[in-house]
Write a structure and sequence with these properties.
By secondary structure, the protein is mainly alpha-helical. The chain has 6 helices and no strands.
Length: 197
């Protein structure tokens, strides 16, 4: 069955959905900053620990859980980006938006700093800070980084996090290429549906 194409009301709904998805991506990033600030503020000791005392497993566990929560928020944002691309490629294939066509042309010819790169950069920065938080506590207070296994595991999780955000946050057409966000593939799917009889 071939695509019917959007009518005026469909175009309006799709544009509203696109705007909502862009907004939700920004809100998720704001939520990530808020979660990071709340958790790290909670982990800062209220009084100075005794010199030479262990940092403790709790700080490492909390840092690891913070990194996991940040990745979950980033992945949700990435899913919203994929949904956004499905809508915008539909508008392109059905000739329902000159803007979306022009935007693809612009992005293919000129470098730009759009949503995906800065948002992924923010998540990478938050993940690095969450991973290094036990070390920052060590700089601020006279504690030892024991148990050392907690530090090692925290750093390993942090490295996987940064690699994952970088991998998912890379952008097509630039040095960052996004997994699950291939506009060409999505456009081809819509083209296939458009040609089906």
């Amino acid at each position: 069955m071939a695509l019917n194409g959007p009518d005026t009301e469909d175009r309006r709904k799709i544009h509203l959905e696109v705007n909502q998805l862009v907004n939700q991506r920004l809100l998720i990033t704001s939520l990530a900053v808020t979660v990071f600030a709340a958790i790290t503020a909670w982990l800062i000791p209220k009084s100075s620990p005794a010199p030479g005392s262990d940092l403790g497993a709790f700080v490492y566990i909390a840092s690891i859980l913070l990194v996991v929560a940040l990745f979950a928020l980033f992945f949700l944002m990435h899913i919203f980006t994929r949904m956004l691309r499905i809508f915008t490629t539909y508008l392109i294939v059905t000739d329902a938006s000159g803007w979306e066509k022009d935007w693809v042309t612009y992005r293919s010819k000129f470098p730009y700093l759009g949503y995906t790169k800065p948002l992924a950069g923010m998540f990478i920065l938050l993940g690095i800070a969450a991973t290094l938080f036990p070390l920052l506590l060590r700089l601020a207070y006279p504690v030892t980084l024991r148990p050392i296994g907690g530090l090692i595991f925290c750093v390993i999780v942090g490295l996987f996090y940064v690699a994952g955000v970088y991998y998912f946050g890379r952008k097509e057409g630039g040095s960052w290429r996004a997994l699950w966000e291939h506009e060409d593939e999505l456009r081809q799917r819509w083209e296939t549906l458009k040609k089906d009889k």
